GNAT family N-acetyltransferase (Candidatus Aeolococcus gillhamiae), 179 residues
Amino acid sequence: MAGEALFLRRLAIEDVELLIEASRDTEIIRWTRMPENLDHATATALLAHWRDRLAAGLVRQYVIAPDPASAPVGLTSLVLQDAKDPWCADVVYWLLPRGRRLGLATRAVQLLLQWAFATTDLRRVALYTLEGNGPSERVAQRCHFQFDQLVDDTREGRVLRLNRWTLEADRPDRHQARK
């Protein structure tokens, strides 16, 4: 998929180094569920796990790059949380430092959702941000997600407060970036 100064392609086995690099970025570790300090074997195993979820129809993952010739700078995914409800998925994303502050996350989410709403049964999307993650909250707002509720999540024995944002497919302005 391609958009304005943006290229998305399916995550591939060759992207092991991208995952290793992401696992060493303090901001990605802080705000996402990316495991910390992956080595080559562990990153390869994570990719294999994700490919199994792809084969089962539970996830679609795309590498983010500014253009087809550029090195990848991030990842965005649609994650089906309930196989019995193919109409709802979560959207997740992260960017390495070299991809931040360029509008890539916003454009990647918009492009992914435009594709998903047009070509799949997906009708609702949820996006979760940890309290205090201003950059991700701004992505949610620019993509026209609406704050839904505050939820608790448990990660490694800790309770985390998450902001839940939602977007319905029938919103007429869902794919237009705010100026």
Summary: The first strand starts at residue 2 and ends at 3. The mean pLDDT is 87. Helices lie at 16-22, 26-31, 40-55, 104-119, 134-142.
